[in-house]
Amino acid sequence: MTSSAERPGTDHGSDTGHDHDHDRVIDEALTRLGLDAKTRLLAGQDLWTLPALPEIGLGSLVMSDGPVGVRGTAWAPGDASLTLPSPTALAATWDPDLAHRTGRVLAQEAHRKGVHLLLGPTINLHRSPLGGRHFETYSEDPLLTARIGAGYVTGLQESGIGATPKHFVANDAETERFTVDNLICERALRELYLAPFEEIVAAARPWALMSAYNSVNGSSMTEHRRLQVGVLREEWGFDGAVVSDWLAARHTERAIEGGLDIAMPGPQTVFGAALAKAVREGRVAEETVDTAVRHVLRLAARAGLLEGAAPAVPAQLRPEPLDGRAVAREIAARSFVLLRNEQNLLPLTPRPGGTLALIGHPAREARALGGGSATVFPAHVVSPLDGLRDALPDGTTLTYAAGADIRDGLGRPDEGFELRAVLRDSAGTVLGEEPVVLGRARWQAGSLPGGADFDAVDSVELTGTFTPPSGGTHRFGTSGLGAFRLTVGGTVLFDGVHEPDSRDPMEALTGRPVPRGAVELSAGEPVRVSLVAGDPKMQYGDLRGVVFSLAHNAAGHEDDRLIEEAVLTASAADTAIVVVATTEAVESEGFDRTSLRLPGRQDELVARVAAANPRTVVVVNAGSPVEMPWREDVAAVLLTWFPGQEGGAALADVLLGRTEPGGRLPTTWPARLQDAPVTRVTPEDGVLPYDEDVFIGYRAWQRQRALPAYPFGHGLGYTEWTYDSIGTDGGTVHVQLTNTGDRQGRETVQLYASPAEPDPRRPARWLVGFTPVTAAPGETVRAEITLARRAFQIWDTAASRWTTVPGRYHLHAARNATASRGPATTVEITG
Question: In the structure, what pLDDT confidence band is assigned to residue 9 with cuts at 50, 70 and 90?
């Protein structure tokens, strides 16, 4: 067996033939554009679109956020979106084909909403479990990340919608993300952080790519010519457009020379008029602008927006439509990871006359998706309570108990609140109003309630009533920037100004809520609530809108009673199911986590319920790792991530055995935060060294004495498997395995490589391939795994190239990264 270090080619994707035609149309269009038009095309004309140029028959290109759903150009509950499970859930399927169908479904949504370019997938790595945005990324492993990301990109683009892998590169944490300088050695940069981008460029040929906020080794990524031109274009052959993260572009000459093509949002960006001025003053060559314009025109041509250029995928050649809700339900069930299943408690077999107890606030109010710019608004969400009620057979009783408040601090105002937003001008005249959900005021300047004129708005009030479901001390707060006056039940809790505490331009959108005061309230007695934003208009460059919210936390002392009720409910049931969850206050874009503990008294709730009922199943509704101190004391633990709008239906499918939980961990779960090998996410003096080199995730855990709670790749099913044999044929490894259980099953065969002679420069073992297989009871199947092309290579920093490390390697077929059982073979690799 041999391996080579050849560079990926540039002929990727079915639209290559079209591109030759596109080049001719682009060349002709470019000759008809003046400098001002060209530079205007490189700057957004607003928050989400590029300008149309009628003189060359160019339509306006529309972009949208969309890792789990296509939001479109509005940010409002009235514009509902199909909401899929979180990216960590998709990665947990270990199934690129399912990721491919995910892309197709999202493309259908994009066409429905008039979107041409989806701002995803997010393929940064899980460097540390504290990363606040990890639910929006795939994995700690670059190969798994690349394979899932490539499937997603291919599904989108074969359906005629462009993909934008992001954030290039090393945007692996949220703390000071706008200004942090990440110091990364070249080998780690190549082998870990650049690797998923490289593979996706090679395998899926994305139409665009997003440049990150952060700096790498001293250069802001939007200005990083070595990476954005030298590596991305010259080495990898990328021919798409590079778009900035929103407000990330900060310098005209350095950005255009550094390989940035589009500065978003617009129109007043470092490009546009500022770029035209730089050309006229001789600071930028017009040929450099032309290069960027070519990239943008190619993107437009592929999307079918340039007259005379056939779209990459004509409408009649798009794949057949898929049932979006069915795909959402399938992804969820296939992503659920069964971490523990003592005495095969799952799947459940409810008996006639039996009782099932469902416990936990998240069982009724499911957290379907993560917070931040990935937020979309589903038309409906199937909660675990909804899903089980619909699925349980007649004669089985389902009881419910809330258990305890899941919040440590402030969260969204939900139960008992009826609020409206009222927009007024300086004279107090009402300009518009509408009901709001979850205490949020969030509109773009051009889509205010009642068609209100943004410039005329002087204040916005969230006003209405709150009927407390429980009495006691209720805490209130605000999220957003500017002047606020908060009144509850006639008591003024805050009257002042909240100033930003960081340079992150998205703080108003993603920042944590701030406590403002508390009042004593009686259960069932309505009180008046008013939050007036006296300076409600948010503007960063051309980002204009209204963004703020009310926050609330219920009376804490009710937890004692609610936990007691939950224990009684559980003790009277055949089986107890406890749903625990994180909240937006601890897991969201805009900030990193400081703890892996579940918020509130959820750990106590689980421990008390488990003591009362030995048949306790815990369902973990979180996007990334949490500590589970009770994990050895419960019968079963099922991880459901953020499962999307059909999550409750999928949960019922899995709990009742209609579907096997197909997920395997895409990231290592520590037992305790202090055991994790990489935890530093906070820069010092603006700098964050990646001192761990190539050792993150399971690669780093191999060097630790402490063991994780659950290793990378772990996951149980509802049947048993034996791994019978392994062999090689060139660059392909074949593994024979048998389903020895009594029901059909699905297994993810993982292939790990390790050097026969330990090498301190390299991990002890690393993933080099994987594939899912299915088999009927007693059936033997053969898994075919193509080795990753970099399976036996490292980046040689001195030679500045990939190099094969010769020698003997063990190839081990395993169920997770630490499994010692299973067939293995040895191969000899030559240089």
Answer: very low
How far apart CA 383 and CA 386 sit, in angstroms, is 5
89 or 266, which is more confident?
A: 89
Residue 685 Rama label (left phi>0; alpha psi -120 to 50; beta): left
Question: Is the separation of the CB atoms in 786 and 735 below 8 Å?
Answer: no
- Point out the residues that are catalytic: 245
How many whole angstroms separate alpha carbon 627 and alpha carbon 484?
A: 37
Q: Over the stretch 116-135, which tens digit does the pLDDT of each residue have?
A: 999 999 999 999 999 999 99
Position with higher pLDDT, 826 vs 372: 826
Cβ–Cβ < 8 Å for 712, 668: yes
pLDDT of residue 690 exceeding 90, the answer is yes
Over residues 536-555, mean pLDDT: 79
pLDDT at 8: 34
Outline where DSSP puts E strands in 393-451.
397-401, 417-424, 430-436, 440-444
553 in helix, strand or coil?
A: strand
- Non-local (6+) Cβ contacts of 539 within 8 A are none
Mean pLDDT of 445-458: 89
Alpha helices in 676-800 (DSSP H): 697-701
C-alpha–C-alpha distance, residues 318 and 316, integer Å: 6
Nearest alpha-carbon partner for 735 in 690, 768, 702, 699: 768
Residues forming beta bridges with residue 498, ordered by sequence position: 482
pLDDT band of 315, cuts 50, 70, 90:
very high
Mean pLDDT of 358-373: 91
Is the CB of residue 384 less than 8 Å from the CB of residue 84? no
Residue with token string 């297989």? 773
Closest CA to 259 of 285, 280, 237, 289: 289
Contact indicator for 100, 112 with CB cutoff of 8 Å: no
Give all strands of the β-sheet with 430-436 in edge-to-edge order.
430-436, 417-424, 459-466, 527-533, 482-488, 491-498
Torsion angle of C-alpha atoms 4, 5, 10, 14, degrees rounded to 10: 50
Coil, strand or helix at 462: strand
- Quickly state the pLDDT bin for 6 (edges 50, 70, 90): very low
184: β partners: none
